[in-house]
Amino acid sequence: MPYIPFTDEQKVLANSVDLEQFLRMRGEKLERVGREHKLIYYDSSGKHDSITIRGSKWFDHKNQTGGGAIKFMQEFYGMDFQTAVQELLGQRVTPLSHSPPKAIAKEEKKEFKLPEANSNMHRVYAYLIKQRFINPNIISHFAKQHTLYEDKEHHNAVFVGVDENGVPRQAHKRSTNSYGNSFRITCEGSDTRYSFAHFGESKRLYVFEAPIDMMSFLTLYPKDWQKHSCIAMNGVYENAVLTALKSHSNLSEIVLCVDNDEGGIEAVDRLRDILNENGYSNVKRLAPPYKDWNEVLKAKNDTPALPAVPNKHKEEYHRQVENLQYLKCRPDKLTSQINAAFKNEQYKYLAEYALALSP
To answer: What pLDDT does residue 236 have?
Structure first.
């Protein structure tokens, strides 16, 4: 394909295309979930719905990646930059498969198998106690439940999610290395409907992003913790939470304990919407005073801790909304007024025009 020198305006326009409308026009199936939409597609392993879309932004919760419209076309339809921009600008129309090719490659069903266990948990205990400051009794509880152990090959901490019958269905590995690159990864073939969790008899479910966050919270607030339920999502993907709620009828109060950073703050509204749509209206937010609950634990043990990270976009949104006024406008001049506001980048006026036109 010959090189096309797109202008900066064209690139911005292409990257800001509403993906929900664009994909529907191309025949893809989407389902509304709160303020977002899920891309639904099928392959030999079944139904997939881990990709959420809001406006021009998307996020793949299983593979923990996301971005704008251009990256979506590149990532899931294998297009180069030139083709992606042309498609989004409507300069060319290529029939799109209802199953994104790269997504299928990532989602190919693998047989789930737990990593082989080590004969002891010395490294896992040392890592969680000395570096993460987790209470040894909390570690021992999950070790006795066989939902936490040390793998034989690399001595990683393995956090296991089991189904209603106690059968392992998911496993998440976390490096215990003190030096070099650490990593965390979900084992191949894991069923995302299950995750590392504890279920008690009370009506309350605490929801965390990661197992270490969950264990840190239990260390900080140990009183009667086994009476309540808690679950780690391994990100901000709601599948395991919804499965847990459906499987445990006593749960009716959900406390979102996700990270106090840009992603976590953004996820709160999304998760609350999804939970409300599934019949759970008693949803609260409990934010850690630092970036996450393990950072709180570090601070309590006089170790440098990462601070909370504000969501500047959301703060600016609320600031602008508070200043909106009901703008009087003449219907016969509305088009020219909107065009002028857009040309002059007077986005506050555009919002006020939208408010004026709303029922």
So the answer is: 73
